[in-house]
Amino acid sequence: MKVSRTKIVARYSETDQMGIIHHSHYINWFEVARTDWIKEAGISYRTIEDEGLMMPVLNIDIHYHSPARFEDAVIVETSIKDYDSIKTRFSYRAIRESDERLLVDGTSTHCWTDLRLKPVSLRKKNPQLHRLILQATGISE
Which of 134, 132, 118 is closest to 41 using CA atoms? Predict the structure, then answer.
């Protein structure tokens, strides 16, 4: 199974009054990591959209374990947890680089759609991308 590792350095603008990274920013970090995973799998997110496909979010599930602070280097590990050609669920683990402490983990579930946001089967709409995902995840048809 393919796991990508995206490094993010926590910015001052992402901190809250307590001096820790505001909880909402982790979802943005997950998005950065997800697009990195897709690129590392062999296709860019821009290309996916240029081919008439979208991946709207259906669900976000996140669990907070320990806070990140300004200038912490955070590694977001991303993989695909489930894939069935219509829905894809990504899994994330954000770890502080300096001490390898788990900060947050979670998942995001997405539906493959056309530009009108009508759900589509990736197996039928883009067999090449479907095969890339199967290869990267080790999921068999």
Answer: 132
The catalytic site residues sit at 16
Q: How does pLDDT run across 28-74, given as a tens digit for each residue? A: 999 999 999 999 988 889 999 999 999 999 999 999 999 999 999 99
Dist. CA 1–CA 37, nearest whole Å:
12
Distance between CA atoms of 127 and 83, rounded to whole angstroms?
A: 14
Q: Are 33 and 78 in contact (CB under 8 A)?
A: yes
C-alpha 30/C-alpha 24 separation (Å) is: 11
DSSP secondary structure letter of residue 64: E
Q: Are 30 and 57 in contact (CB under 8 A)?
A: no
Domain that holds residue 91: 4-137
The closest of 23, 24, 22, 28 to 8, measured between CA atoms, is: 28
Whole-prediction pTM: 0.93
Alpha-carbon distance of 122 to 128, in angstroms, equals 9
Q: Is the pLDDT of residue 137 over 90?
A: no
What is the count of structural domains for the chain?
Answer: 1
Find how far residue 38's CA is from the centre of its chain: 8
CB 90 within 8 A of CB 34: yes
